[in-house]
Amino acid sequence: MSSASLLQVLEATGYFPDGKAAARLHLGQDARNLRRGRDFVPDALWRSPSALTVYFKFEEAQPADELVSKWRREVWNEGFAPLLWVVSPERIDLYNGFGTPVQKDDAQKHLLRTFANIDASLVELDALAGRLSIETGQFWAQATAVDRKTSVDQKLLSDLAALEHDLVKANLARSAAQAVIGRVIFTQYLIDREIVSTTHLKKLCGHAELPLILRDRTATEKLFSWLSQTFNGDMFPPSSVKNTPMTSYLTRVADFLEAVDPDSGQRTFFPYQFDIIPVELISSIYEQFAHAVPPTVARRPTEARKNGVHYTRLSAVSLVLDEVMDGLTGMESVLDLTCGSGIFLVEALRRLVHRRADGQAPTRDLIRKILHEQVYGVDISEAAIRVAAFSLYLAALELDPDPQPPHSLKFRPLIGKTLLIGDARTVEQDGDGREALTTPSGLKQFDLIVGNPPWSFRGLKGTQARRKTRDVGIPAQPRGEGLDFVLRAAEFSHEKTRFGVILSAMPFFSRSGTGMAAAQHVMRLLAPVTLVNLSNLCNWLFATATMPAVVLFARHRPQRSDQVTIVQIPWTASGARTHSFEVSPRDIIKLSQAEIDKQPFKLKVAAVGRRRDLLLLDTLCAEHAGLGKQLMTLKAKFSDGLTHGLAENQTMDARALQGLEVLQAPDICPFYIPDDLDLFTQAKAQRPRTREIYRAPLVVVKEMMGNNARVAVAVAERDLVFTDAYFAASLPTSHKQSAHLLAAILGSSLASWFFLMTSSEFGIWKRKLLISDVASMPVPDLKQAVKSDAGKQLLQIEKGLRTPAIEGRSWALLDEAVFDLYDIDEVDRVVVRSGLFRASWQWQAGRLTSVAPADVRTDITSYAEVFVSVIGGWLSARNKRHMRAEIFDLPMRDALRVVRFVLEDGPGKATIDVVKPVGELNDILASIGRRLKVKLATALSGERELRIHGRNEVVIIKPAARRYWMGVSALEDADTVIAESFVGGNA
Hints:
Layout: H1 3-12, E1 25-27, H2 28-33, E2 44-47, E3 53-58, H3 65-78, E4 83-87, E5 91-96, E6 111-116, H4 119-129, H5 131-136, H6 138-142, H7 152-169, H8 174-192, H9 198-205, H10 210-214, H11 217-231, H12 238-242, H13 247-257, H14 279-283, H15 285-290, H16 303-306, H17 314-324, E7 334-336, H18 343-357, H19 364-373, E8 375-379, H20 382-399, E9 419-421, H21 431-437, E10 438-439, E11 442-443, E12 446-451, H22 459-469, H23 482-490, E13 493-504, H24 506-509, H25 513-526, E14 529-533, H26 538-541, E15 549-554, E16 563-568, H27 575-578, E17 588-592, H28 593-598, H29 602-608, H30 611-623, H31 627-633, E18 638-640, E19 652-653, E20 661-663, E21 684-685, E22 698-702, E23 713-716, E24 720-722, E25 726-730, H32 736-746, H33 749-758, H34 771-775, H35 782-785, H36 789-800, H37 808-822, H38 826-839, H39 844-851, H40 856-875, E26 881-888, E27 896-905, E28 911-915, H41 921-932, H42 936-939, E29 946-949, E30 953-959, H43 967-983
Parallel strand pairs: 3-4, 7-8, 7-12, 8-9, 12-13, 14-16, 20-24, 26-28
Antiparallel strand pairs: 1-2, 2-3, 4-5, 5-6, 10-11, 13-15, 14-15, 16-17, 18-25, 19-21, 22-23, 22-25, 26-27, 27-30, 29-30
Helix pairs in contact: 7-8, 7-13, 8-20, 17-18, 18-19, 18-20, 23-25, 32-36, 33-38, 36-37, 40-43
Protein name: site-specific DNA-methyltransferase (adenine-specific)
InterPro entries: DNA_methylase_A-5, DNA_methylase_N6_adenine_CS, N4_N6_ade-DNA_methylase, SAM-dependent_MTases_sf
EC number: 2.1.1.72
């Protein structure tokens, strides 16, 4: 390799900044040691925190398409490399690493772009696929062809699901179908890895290739018998040899290995190389099998869905294990009480081996010792445990530096020893569980407890059943049993055991008193705790789940025992396409347990908001009573509406409502109820409610939030029936003005912000409000407010909004009037406006807006105005300095935005200028770095946001996405700069 040529390209694209490798860049032999392949040997690789890998290969002459196709096929089989760069002295070719191979020489089909190896083209290459573009997400917006939907995991799981479906459809028992598929994959792995040679296969079975063997049932029996004797363990038990499936079934599996289309009979290209596909991917086969549905019951939920089984993607596994295994020795023991197909156990085994090997090649004895003594799993499903055993055997073989000769690779059984089939609640009470999980002094204690226990919703009966078996004083989780599994796992822990468990987010972030009690009990038991909110990612991370997710970490990092750390992981446009996520320092908030005990909803605020949101909530809750209490003084309350129900459930008398207008789900507009509603004519309904709740004036609230992130609320000045798509409060006739004032408040951005921060579901799960959410809204005294000047102004504005359509400017006027009513200052108005923007992220359009590039003349200028206003207030105390802001006018396509704030002598008004920089983004960073004596490119390897202080200036550099440049971000950045100035002695 020409190291100079490759390094020139790496320098120009940010992978080798400031004359040294960026974080997570590996060169030469180091890069080659990080992968195993047949033909492809990288010269460099860069790996993101989520394991996405960019490979670099240098060739003196342009390689042939057939060779590049071989390289790319290996990269595709690895499953984590979206890009392959082929660098030569004249050009750089970028290939899509996620594109499914279709033939032997298909490199050109997957070529994304070619760049000349000259300065001008390298600038374009950097803008498209440089490190900053990859890290900030700009690359994924430009390279739409690079998508995980075509990667090896999606293709293999789809093919295996089709294979299993065909076998079951042909009347092979599902368990037998899954077993033969697993054994065939294991065998093909041995062949691909050359642990079993084609010569040996020919001698043993009469055929040199596995598909030919499978088409010969006698040869298949010989092969399975030999594998059972050679490898022992749980993959090929003697019973499996005796019950080898019939030839017709084996032929269908052979067709899969030869890429024969089962319908047309045509042979295509077989893309898979099982010696390269990560073992963790093989584990995910269980998710496909677990959710497989026989055609006769396609409309009914599978047992897996009923039991809350969800495939855990490797990115989530890595998130958990990166934290709980940081700084360990490799001697630790691991337990997963709901291990499923064993993906946590497989990755834990790999990491324990690497820790113990300490940079040396691990010995087979070391690998097997860790496998049999340190890694334990339990699951109620025998099929899952068998897949877990299979996956762990594969992992042990993959870690083995020299897996030869085959007869020396015998496995001891794992099932019944360290992998146990049984109910986690009682697994140690008899048989294998007692032997494996108990000691003379009691339950075996583990150093790490990990997993993704069921999130299943058991309902009222399930909660009652669990309470019967729960110790007195221990609260039960009302909407599922994930926390129950954590408490059960804690029985196998000691005081330093680390926990990393994926759970439903609902008990932690909802307003359910019982849910909060159960969550806080666990948090106190395992303190100190960190919660990572994954709810923004559930549409791809846990696509089959019906609840949002959170990761509970405990005792994994040094911190005060009374402190809880909450981490938000935001939605990104590239997340589903890459199976990765990002965390910014701004997305981390720490709370004391005492704060949470006093106001449990602060957990939700920290999971979706900022410190400024917490401060504003404290102020509002201290100054105003909740709406529910306010309504009580008017002898009113919110009530749910009528439930029609199915015909067989319409048993209650509803004749008292006949003749009234009825408000159906789509009828309402903000502040406006149509005059031509249908009349209610039914004699019966499932839940008609009482006639009194339908009396005017009615403040009617739609439970589903509008797509403008505002509450749809209106006042009905005539009696009418509202359905259960709404809830409403019937106020006394003398308080009609209070009803309209309340509607104005609930329709404002302040209410949207409040409900995002505190409601049970909106912001983490559904776009839905509950009565308890609205009842908790802090509201000024309604009787006094309608008489105030601000109240009268707000009522006038609300009157003008009673139309089917409202202009954007009218919303702004409404918001300002509500701010005036609450006497909210300008700084907190910024917090609320940012909250409305964040509330819009619950819809796809809002999410896309949040990651769109920030515009220099609108978004960044607004940010700078807020920032200098805060600093200006601080400077005004002495009135000896003022601030000037310089916004660098960077192209929209650039991955970063840069603002420079300069302190200047003398009193004066702050100014904001948009300046045209000299050169490209990298030139600007280099210039700033030279002036401030900071290697910016290197610093940006580890941090998404940078503040660089000079003598009288601070430069703020962030990704281009709009969500980094909100008003609330400017407030907090200014707060931080002021705090740092005091610490640095510059005040």
